[in-house]
Amino acid sequence: MALSYVVGLFATRGIAEDACHRLRTEGVPGRDIALEMLERTAPVPQTMEPELEALTIDPFIWGDVHKTYVQYISNGETVIVVRAESNDDIDLAVNTIRQYAPMRIRVVEPGRNAAVGRDLL
Fold it and tell me: What percent of the chain has pLDDT over 70?
């Protein structure tokens, strides 16, 4: 089988790190796992906007919370890439990553429509 990569996209770095730890526990060598945060600061989820607005009502107490604390927000979308040399490696990576509710999982084979890949979630 040709070399493939399993790519998992997560909403936060913490969950992606948990998935990486689990992959290592399941026997995937650390050299075959890469983790990269795509953006340093994630956009504010729509569900949080009303709460942030509520905190700006009394500027003497809270001030503009979003502007004040935005530099401390470090969770952004994070990608895990797992090198897989066999179908068993692909299955192990996909099944392990799925346990952590990724936003998307894709299997990519270099040189064969790598930009397209094969979505699994």
Answer: 62
The distance between the two most distant Cα atoms of the chain, rounded to a whole number of Å, is 64
Model confidence pLDDT, tens digit, residues 2-34: 788 999 999 888 899 999 999 999 999 999 999
Instruction: Give Cβ neighbours of residue 90 (< 8 Å, ≥ 6 apart).
Output: 4, 6, 84, 107
Residue 37: which pLDDT band, with cuts at 50, 70 and 90?
A: confident
Return left, alpha or beta for 101; rule: phi > 0 is left, psi -120 to 50 is alpha, else beta: left
Distances (CA, A) of 77 to 9, 13, 14, 95, 102: 7, 7, 10, 20, 10
| 80: phi then psi, degrees, rounded to nearest 5 | -115, 135
Length of the chain: 121
C-alpha–C-alpha distance, residues 63 and 87, integer Å:
54
Q: Calculate mean pLDDT across residues 34-54.
A: 70
Which tokens go with 115? 């930009």
